[in-house]
Automatic annotation (TrEMBL):
Biological source species: Bacillus australimaris
Protein name (record): SMI1/KNR4 family protein
InterPro entries for this protein: Knr4/Smi1-like_dom (IPR018958), Knr4/Smi1-like_sf (IPR037883)
Domain Knr4/Smi1-like: 33-155
Source species taxonomy: Bacteria, Bacillati, Bacillota, Bacilli, Bacillales
Amino acid sequence: MSFKRIKDKLDQYTIDIRSTKTNNPLNEMKKIEENGFHISSDYKSFINEYGECWIEDNVYTHLREKPVWLVGELVPVELFYGLEQNDYDISESIKTYKEQLPEQIIPIADADGGDLICLDVSEINQGKIYFWDHELRDGEQDLFLIADTFTDLLKGYL
């Protein structure tokens, strides 16, 4: 799916873009990649176009792997982090969740109730998208696969 088709899909929703685009998003993303993170091109295109943004419609995504507590298979996606050097900055979110997430997983969006949507930035699984349940601890599985790519995440919106 080309980025134009992704943009067409997102244009179906009310999106409140919070990014001021005062910084060059791709340069900011390169700084994040200097930490050894492999960021997928579809996610970079999204950040370049939308940056920090709220999806004001009720948007849900399917989980391919499902926590036992979840009724149904859907989780909400509310806010995508940007590069604005504020509370919703990707770099700040990486620092905030460094002790709770595996080092190859970075938070990219808020789900409901403190949960996160995360991106795998490892070389092997680059671009896979996960749901992180903030309440599961002590060795319990807390990451659940949503999609193989960021594009697939966006295509799956309901």
